[in-house]
Design goal:
alpha/beta, Rossmann fold, 2 domains, 5-stranded parallel β-sheet, two-stranded antiparallel sheet, 11 strands, CbbQ/NirQ/NorQ/GpvN, MoxR-like ATPase
């Protein structure tokens, strides 16, 4: 692939992502939007948060993505008694045959290319925060020593709705590290019918590898090299800045928004819009990409106050209002 011209390299990577999307649709039914957004997270080099009720194939999606891309993957089931060392690893004191003692670092499951943090909001905030440094800086520090993570490194976390019993809300600082929050809903009747036929018989479909870790890293470089028009940049800034309850904001924004998205939201919109364009085989992102990604990018980076909740206004409804004014 290194011998290809830039256009040829782009088209080949885009074709492989198309194969990956088709492969996932053979095992994940009725979740086309979820599949494409998950692939966009990886193409953009970010982390994804999959939110939905149990039994909606969130875990299957993550394990299938690892198989499709040949990524070394590990799964951590987050529980209330999970400790940070159970995720990051720990130092143990060992004694050699000649009686000398020394500490040795035993890596935790985070040392992989794709970490599945299953039901992340069932662990305590202390353990949730253990992922914070790793997700942002791609290394962990244990007992004062730095340990670099493999490349590429991604976290795909699943989360149950916070209204369910035994869940803790994720810290705002950690939520901001997720490129997209992807809400997973119930499939429609036709998709559920196809799922029944495909998964309750004697044989079930399996995904075939479509990309390699090297392909994924090349895709991430292509995304960052992709041009983005001034009109798209203006739209991104207008949307994100309009959502902040600052002194010069509209009265409705100041009345309803507790806190708004920071600059990381603009970065996330820019990268994920270009990633969607790559996956779709387009050489530049469009305004439609920004509209499509507004909710996955913003819904976990802002919070409405009691006044908004008393109106029955959800965050997604409020983002729709922002989109109507920004475009």
């Amino acid at each position: 692939m290194s011998d290809l011209d830039p256009v040829g390299a782009f088209e080949e990577i885009s074709s492989r992502f198309a194969d990956a999307r088709s492969g996932l649709q053979k095992v994940i039914f009725g979740q086309e939007e979820v599949i494409e957004l998950t692939l966009a997270v990886l193409a953009a080099g970010g982390h994804g948060l999959l939110v939905g009720a149990p039994g909606l194939a969130k875990t299957l999606l993550v394990t299938s993505v690892a198989e499709l891309m040949g990524l070394s993957a590990k799964r951590v089931q987050f529980t209330p008694d999970l400790m940070p060392g159970d995720v990051l690893g720990s130092e143990v004191l060992e004694e050699s045959a000649d009686g000398k003692r020394a500490f040795r670092f035993i890596p935790g499951p985070i040392f992989c290319q794709l970490l599945m943090a299953d039901e992340i909001n069932r662990a305590s905030p202390r353990t949730q925060s253990a992922l914070l440094q790793a997700m942002q800086e791609l290394h962990v520090t244990v007992a004062g020593a730095r340990h670099d993570l493999p490349s590429p490194f991604h976290v795909l976390a699943t989360q149950n709705p916070i209204e369910q019993e035994g869940t803790y809300p994720l810290p705002e600082a950690q939520l901001d590290r997720f490129l997209l929050q992807i809400n997973v809903g119930y499939p429609d009747e036709d998709a559920e019918r196809r799922m029944l036929a495909a998964t309750t018989g004697a044989r079930t479909a399996a995904v075939e590898p479509a990309l390699t870790p090297g392909d994924l890293k090349r895709a991430q470089r292509l995304v960052r090299e992709m041009p983005i028009g001034e009109q798209i940049v203006d739209a991104i800034l207008s949307l994100v800045r309009r959502a902040r309850p600052t002194g010069d904001a509209e009265e409705r924004i100041r009345t309803l928004v507790a806190w708004g998205p920071g600059p990381r939201a603009s970065q996330a919109l820019s990268l994920s819009a270009r990633a969607l364009a790559l996956i779709d085989g387009r050489f530049a992102p469009s305004l439609d990409d920004v509209r499509r990604l507004a909710k996955p990018v913003l819904r976990h980076r802002m919070a409405l106050n009691f006044s908004a909740r008393s109106e029955g206004l959800s965050t997604d409804d409020f983002i729709d209002e922002l989109l109507a004014k920004a475009f």
